[in-house]
Design goal:
175 residues; single chain; alpha+beta
Length: 175
């Protein structure tokens, strides 16, 4: 089963992760730290399980220490970077847990699942930023392909014993 980030309004999944994105389990062995993590992720009445994870986008850069090729969390790191900033936006407890018997049911609260679209503007902004980044990467890839073609032409010319030739041009084209 693919893992997804437990933070509210985060759609990052382990199955389609980017190279820089890492996932971190909740610190069950440290109850005080676990409580801070649960409060900060912004989901009311949330109880993490053993394999529940949160992605690296929710931690500040100073929360990480690098050992070799790995990106590790420091022992006291707490997730603090979220799409929502106001603590009043944290979802309240579920109505069935708080309402007294015999009272009419209240309007349903928004879902706290990561796939629910709570903030369309933020999602749209994230989409456009991703599309812009995609376009930049396409241009960069195209430029790198041109560089590779030139290098291959120079290598072929060098192997043929004609080091004075410009890359990709035949002798009759050089004049």
């Amino acid at each position: 089963m693919p893992k997804s980030c437990a933070a509210r309004q985060c759609c990052n999944r382990y199955s389609n992760r980017r190279k820089q994105l890492t996932f971190h389990r909740f610190p069950f062995s440290r109850p005080e730290l676990l409580k801070a993590w649960v409060l900060n992720i912004g989901r009311g009445n949330f109880q993490p399980k053993q394999h529940t994870v949160i992605c690296s986008e929710h931690f500040r850069p100073e929360c990480f220490s690098a050992f070799g090729n790995r990106k590790n969390l420091k022992h006291n790191a707490v997730p603090t970077v979220f799409a929502f900033q106001d603590t009043a936006q944290v979802l309240p407890q579920r109505p069935e847990a708080t309402e007294a018997p015999g009272q009419p049911a209240k309007a349903p609260q928004p879902s706290d699942h990561s796939y629910a679209l709570l903030d369309l503007d933020a999602l749209k902004k994230k989409l456009f930023l991703t599309l812009k980044e995609n376009e930049k990467l396409r241009k960069r890839l195209k430029a790198q392909r041109l560089v590779m073609q030139r290098m291959c032409g120079r290598l072929r010319a060098h192997r043929a014993g004609l080091p004075g030739l410009r890359a990709g041009l035949r002798p009759e084209q050089q004049s």
